[in-house]
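Usage

Read records sequentially. Each one opens with the input sequence:
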Amino acid sequence: MEIFNYHPLTGEFLSVGVADENPLEPENPIVSGYATPTVPPADEAGRVRVYRRPDGTAPQNWPEGAWTLVPDYRAVPLFRTSDGSVFMLGDEYAGIGDLPAFLTDEPRPSPAHKWVADEWVLDDGLVEDLLAAVRSGKNAEINAARLAANRGTFVHAGKAFACDELSRSDIDGVNGYVVLFGALPTDWPGAWKAVDNSYAPIATLNDWKAFYASMVAAGNANFAHAQALKVQLAAATTIEQVQAISWE
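and closes with the structure output:
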């Protein structure tokens, strides 16, 4: 006699077998545990055949259960309804049977959505909180971009000059001397090295002032650009508008 084996934990149909012979009652073959002589139903897409008791557990003895078709989510991405995070199948839920209330197969559209009455709903309060957080992050991004620009290069007399922390300390050191003494340092080399390793001549005090003024002008331009972006930021009313703001 054919028997149909099922999983001892989930009740899922596993394989077809043969009942053991019963020497005492040959007409009643022995059905092993977690198997049944009852033929399982036909397969259905998205569902799995399980043999279970009314309480959902798999019986060791077949007369205590019956075949049923239940949803199969083992190959379907699942998400927690609390925060939209990806759920990994395990002890909480193995993927067979109806989804528990804390899971959904619908991805969360955005962090501003919350799970209400079996669907993701846009929450105005979360939208405002998220917009404020994104705006704050963009403001910090603008400040960081401005700092990077200030520490990048500036142009003078058609050449680019480094303005990183070390270079700026050298420039400010010379300028401090100029402010104190009204002249270039006594050991002044007469030029400043550009990023392409060429030199720009700086022979006089006025040459130095023009060089330093070019650096200040670049910083002022970076400041003005940052302020213009922050005006856009203040006017932005959606997360997409905030995210579209870029230093470049």
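Summary fields computed downstream for this record:
- The chain is about 35% helix and 20% strand.
- The helical segments are 124-150, 165-181, 205-235, 239-244.
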